[in-house]
Amino acid sequence: MEKFTQHNGLVIPLDRPNVDTDAIIPKQYLKSVKRTGFGPNLFDDWRYLEPGEPDMDHSKRTVNTDFVLNKPEYAGGSILLARENFGCGSSREHAVWALTDYGIRSVIASSFADIFFNNSFKNGLLPIVLKENVIDELFALSAGKELQLTIDLDSQRVVVNGDSSLVYDFDVDEFKKYCLLNGLDDIGLTLQHADDIRAYEKKRKAEAPWLF
Amino acid sequence: MARTLYDKVWDAHLVRQENDGTGLLYIDRHLVHEVTSPQAFEGLRLANRKPWRVDSILAVPDHNIPTVGRNEGISDPVAKIQLETLDNNCDEFGVTEFKMDDIRQGIVHVIGPEQGATLPGMTVVCGDSHTSTHGAFGALAHGIGTSEVEHVLATQCLIQNKMKNMLVNIEGPVGKGVTAKDIVLRIIGEIGTAGGTGCAIEFAGQGIRDLSIEGRMTVCNMAIEGGARAGMVAVDEKTIEYVKDRPFAPKGDDWDKAVVAWQDLKSDDDAVFDQVVNIDGASIEPQVTWGTSPEMVVGVGDSVPNPATENEAVKRSGMEAALAYMDIVADAPITSINVDKVFIGSCTNSRIEDLRAAAEIAEGKKVAANITLAMVVPGSGLVKQQAEQEGLDKIFLEAGFEWREPGCSMCLAMNADRLEPGERCASTSNRNFEGRQGKGGRTHLVSPAMAAGAAIAGHFVDVREM
Ligand code: SF4
Hints:
A: alpha/beta; Aconitase, domain 4; 7-stranded mixed sheet; 31% helix; B: alpha/beta; Aconitase, domain 3; globular; binds iron/sulfur cluster; metal ion binding (chain B); 3-isopropylmalate dehydratase large subunit (chain B); iron (chain B)
């Protein structure tokens, strides 16, 4: 997994609540057996005017110039700003893979759906929860203009346009932070407890043999 | 200390707990399907790992399997690779799989309980958010992402933080003609799609106790639509009766022991919940969603809400966008909305009782002339077989419905079953998001009886008056 320590990037403001995983990556792209290559189809239904299929040349499709990802002032953006309940819907990790494949390193929103939130951490994508009034301010700062944020995971701070007087703190779970900072695969960490797992199984087999 | 049902199942599966509260949770049953597993098996292979407990895994293809012409194979080459990948992975690692031509094949959340692979008090995971369905058995069941699928394959455990406890009580009985689907849609309308975020919801009260196990599965299935990864219902005699004698269920001595242990799978009387929601069962009408989120729902006797009455700006613009997408006007009576297609199926409503309820409405009638396609997609090969034994297929076919092979089908339109842009569908599935059933398609979520009613009338009707 790619580490996340500090990231400086341009904000893409996506001003809608309840952005669901079907919108992030539509179902026809879930047929892939890979983890990569989803970037061109991030927000596919909103981004292009005609319906898309996996085998198309996406660079030749007509883009929806009204959609934020296609606006020149947000080109190259790597921080997605969104509203409440971001990532609701299905458990598809393809939604996270589409975001990271596009180049997004962090999503900032007032709340996230649980499964999406978890999936993000496993892929080096940092989801940041900020209060609704802060989100409102960030939307105002990014409306039609360039907003640069510096996200520092270790100190859990977001700095606005390099201005050290405009800083927002955020919370993050200790264990998730540790894994992200170090780019750690949590399977390896869990397997360090293999003896505990075996001991649990032994005890459980005696109590509830029908589960085995 | 008094504990909730969720607390009890959590405690029984905790392998270890870190100081920061993170738990390592043991997983009893791992269900697998073709869409969210290929990258997980690949990860396993790359790291030279093997499944920790292969007998805990049950796999089935369902999401992009065709529902017609199966003997001709799969025509979509991309889908074909994914289905073959599942077969190959299961063969390579020795995982039990119900392949496409197996009568036991079906939607993963239908076949788990049908086979008795889902048992009371288990922890059940699957790379699919509707895994919450299995909570109907007093199991702790939730959806996981592909990285977590790999983690469970490799370690039999999941790293989890404990969720909060939420109780939803349906007080008193619900009215005649009101189904499990109506109950859960009403709950989501009340709490909102993020209302249960971070929670395990226990559904309780007479309205829930009166439901069959299949009905409880419908309710738990949609817990995720209320933001909760897990929904649960306490075990009672109905649960035990349902599980008995199923292929994967314990037998003999094990069965007797299990039944004793399962008696405890309920919240203690004085257990404390972080949040409690009470809904008067008698006030629940058959429900119809009008917008692009399951919380945008009203009773069939109501009209489409008017955004002008909403004070909150973000909500109001969300309502306006939904009305524009759905191409319906504020204040229009729900029963004035015509539909083009009808879909009866999905892990929410494709079990035998669902098909019976729809058939009861359709019997002896004809699908309305304005309906271009009405389809019934059973949840599994065994559900299909049972329905055919009861003659339900004939009722549907004579009324003008199509009778298909089991799978997810138009619930998410990964296969050929989908809406065309602008088409409107009465659907028994669980998500009415933009484009869910096909780009530009418009979905109204309803119960099986309400879907059949809409097929016959050509527009939404109150099935209690049919
Ligand atoms: S029927 Fe629909 S919701 Fe259920 S598992 Fe299949 S795609 Fe998901």
